[in-house]
Amino acid sequence: xxxxxxxxxxxxxxxxxxxxxxxxxxxxxxxxxxxxxxxxxxxxxxxxxxxxxxxxxxxxxxxxxxxxxxxxxxxxxxxxxxxxxxxxxxxxxxxxxxxxxxxxxxxxxxxxxxxxxxxxxxxxxxxxxxxxxxxxxxxxxxxxxxxxxxxxxxxxxxxxxxxxxxxxxxxxxxxxxxxxxxxxxxxxxxxxxxxxxxxxxxxxxxxxxxxxxxxxxxxxxxxxxxxxxxxxxxxxxxxxxxxxxxxxxxxxxxxxxxxxxxxxxxxxxxxxxxxxxxxxxxxxxxxxxxxxxxxxxxxxxxxxxxxxxxxxxxxxxxx
Length: 319
Description:
The protein has 11 helices and 9 strands. It has 319 residues and is α/β, with parallel strands linked by helices. The protein has one domain (2-289). A 7-stranded mixed β-sheet has the order 1-9-8-2-5-3-4. A two-stranded antiparallel ribbon has the order 6-7. Strand 3 (138-144), helix 7 (150-160) and strand 4 (166-169) form a beta-alpha-beta unit. Helix 2 (21-39) packs across helix 4 (59-83) and helix 3 crosses helix 4.
């Protein structure tokens, strides 16, 4: 059944892929009305996120951002359909880059590069960066989470690799970076680092849109271990279907920064980027579902469980 569903979906996507972008954007508008007004896809999550993130805005402003976000989200879905097999000429027109020379200068100084990113539309287009940084001494890649469906995961990997960037699973990140280093090349790798860490991965919190927020620090640790230069990818909206990434330098050598400083700076850049283009960030995810209180309660239970295990091992009864 899963295989049948995959091939039916693939055939449907193949037909849509052949349509001009202007037609897909028209379909996106229709999809927006369906998702926003009829299906109301994650409307409660988005509204709650926006209201708590922008307490200074009245409800009319919140609703305006909300509607723009859903329009950009639907554009993203349709642009993803067209992205597979998109010609180099077209993607160059739709994804613009500024400041790439900063990363090339870092490589010339002997540093690999880490590019901090956020879930801004259209982050998939950013993989076309490989068309703009064509050098034998640079290996380009992006970190991603594999999909549960192996067939769709293979399709997404092929799409993301179509211009020369290498998709790297999060679990294989450090191993692959070490392999690149041994080959004599410097890496330039994009990390979308604004995701929700697992309970086990939490070791740092930041003030992010008025809430105490647990954050990933793995990107920073890898950058420090490899003495990478770190940068922020500021995303901008040019016009429908056209985006721009502006590279901003954070540090020449991540190893010279105090612990968590790179992560803190990234979230300051991310916050500023979201405030400038709130409709471009992915508000549908439950970014603040893990709280410090929940973390403290979980750690307390884990401590109690360890205490019971020790007591049982020592032959004691009770706690």
